[in-house]
Design goal:
- With 76 residues, this protein is an alpha+beta fold.
- The protein has three helices and two strands; from the N terminus they run H-H-E-E-H.
- The chain has a two-stranded antiparallel ribbon with strand order 1-2.
- Strand 1 (40-42) and strand 2 (45-50) form a beta hairpin.
- The protein is elongated.
Length: 76
């Protein structure tokens, strides 16, 4: 489900309890694999994971993100 918590009655949340057993197991497996790879999850969007950006830096307590905005080369 690709919806916000209000539209999905919370089913879009990673730790949702109002989804099927298989869906919970799949989310748990996905979470363990992606977390082990260094990604962090947005808890209200089970499908949304971050690596290297400012959200991950905030969640992990890093001083800065691994990467930032890229300047446009539109003048080329």
């Amino acid at each position: 489900m690709n919806a916000n918590p209000e539209e999905s009655a919370g089913a879009c949340c990673t730790a949702a309890l109002n989804i099927g057993e298989q869906a919970r197991a799949n989310r748990k497996l996905l979470g363990s694999v992606l977390t082990a790879a260094g990604l962090v999850n947005h808890p209200t969007e089970w499908w949304h994971w971050s690596f290297g950006d400012r959200y991950r830096a905030m969640v992990t307590g890093e001083v800065a993100a691994l990467y930032g905005p890229v300047e446009s080369n539109s003048h080329l």
